Amino acid sequence: MNELSQYEESIMRIFWRLERALVRDVLDNLPDPKPPYTTLASHIKLMEKKGFLGHRLYGTVNEYFPLVTQGEYSKKSISRMVNQFFEGSVGNFLSFMVKEKNISDKEIQDLQKLIDDYENSAK
Predict the structure, then answer these.
(1) Is residue 44 a contact partner of residue 7, using CB atoms and an 8 Å limit?
(2) What are phi and psi of 56, to 5 degrees?
(3) 16 near 66, Cβ under 8 Å?
(4) Are 27 and 37 in contact (CB under 8 A)?
(5) Distance, first Cα to last Cα, the chain
(6) CA dihedral 27, 29, 32, 33 (to 10 degrees)
(7) Which of 11, 14, 19, 50 has the fewest C-beta atoms under 10 angstroms from its C-beta?
(8) Quick one: pLDDT at residue 1?
(9) What CA–CA distances, in Å, run from 26 to 1, 12, 32, 95, 111?
(10) Which stretches of the chain drop beneath a pLDDT of 50?
């Protein structure tokens, strides 16, 4: 799966929320300052070429829809980040998050419960 730029990810979030949309619908959902219509249309076409969007033609108007779910994209993105920055180690990633205070005590407890549940189900 190809990567998306931050801008393309913001466009994908709109598609995931709306499920189907015209370029105009996406433009209406983007924050100000809005890009020109043609610039947005070009980005959407590129995202289609990358395999993230499909379209259905209605006369001369394309209605676009996501081909990749948000969950699939999140899973691949996190895996890629762990591999690139943490030597493929989820432990290194979690250690970094804890040390940087990007994870709350409640989240640590929830993770511990997930680990305990996983270990108990593997027995």
Answers:
(1) no
(2) -130, 130
(3) yes
(4) yes
(5) 35
(6) -20
(7) 19
(8) 62
(9) 23, 9, 12, 38, 36
(10) none
Per the document, the length of the chain is: 123
**Distance between CA atoms of residues 63 and 79, nearest Å:** 31
Contacts of 22 (CB under 8 A, 6+ apart): 61, 62, 63, 64
Taking the CB of residue 45, how many other CB atoms lie within 10 A of it?
A: 15
- Record the tokens describing residue 79, joined without a space: 């895996």
CA dihedral 21, 25, 31, 37 (to 10 degrees): 110
In DSSP notation, the chain reads -----HHHHHHHHHHHHHSSB-HHHHHHHSPSSPPPHHHHHHHHHHHHHTTSEEEEEETTEEEEEESS-HHHHHHHHHHHHHHHHSTT-HHHHHHHHHHTT-S-HHHHHHHHHHHHHHHHHH-
Cα–Cα distances in angstroms (integers) from residue 68 to residues 64, 89, 115, in the given order: 12, 25, 28
Give residue 93's pLDDT.
Answer: 84
